Fold this protein.
Amino acid sequence: MSTAQPKYPRVLLKLSGEALAGEAKYGIDPQIVSRLAAEVAEVHASGCEVAIVVGGGNIFRGLSAADLGMDRSTADYMGMLATVLNSLALQEAIERAGVPTRVQSALEIREIAEPYIRRRAVRHIEKRRVVIFAAGTGNPFFTTDTAASLRAIEVGAAVIMKATRVDGVYSADPEKDPTATRYSFLSYQQVLNENLRVMDATAIALCRENSMPIIVFDGTVPGNILKAVMGEPIGTVVTEERGGE
C-alpha cells in the first residue's frame, strides 16, 4: 500500500443522483453503487475524512416537475426525499465495504436517519465515520449543490469534490461543440461571469465567500476519486485565483 498522504485531510464528495443510475438513467444501479462505495472505502483507507452529499435526480427532479405545473415547494420536498433513498443505498454499500457510515437528514426521518446536527456530524467525521448528508438543506428552492457547499463549510472540509460525467469544466458543452476547451483552473468570478455549469450561482457564491475550493472531475472513471484526494491534476479546480484554460 502506498505511504503517500492525501492532499486534502477532509473532503465533501458531491455525487449526482444520475451517477447512481448508470446507463439506465433512472433508479439505482447496485453495481454502480458498489463501485462508488469501494472507492469511498479506498479514500477512507488513505486517511482522508469523507462526507458525502448525493442528489436525487435519478428518482425525482423537483425543478422539472415544477416546470410541468407542480407546486415548486412540493416538488422540491419530493426531490429531497429522493436524496434520502440514494443516501440509504450508499450507506448500505459503504458499510458492506467495511466503513462505518451515518446518514444525517435535513428533514426529520428518525426511524432511518439522524437529524442533521453540525457538531454531531463533525464528531462522526473525527471518529472516522463517513457521513452522508441527505435531504439537501431541508428547504425548497435550494439545490443539492448549495447543500454540498453549505455542509462542506459547516464541517470544515478542505475541498468540495464534484464527481460528474465529464472530465472537467468546458467553455461549452463538449458533446455539442467540438471546439469546446477544457479549463484546468477557474476563478469563482469567471464561473459566474461566463455562466459555466459548475454549480448553481448560490453554491458558487457560498464557496467564494468562504474560500472553499471545488474540484470538478469525471467520477465515472474508477480510481479518480482517490486521485483527486491525493492531489493528482485531474479535472478542473475552481478557486479564488484567476482561472485559465
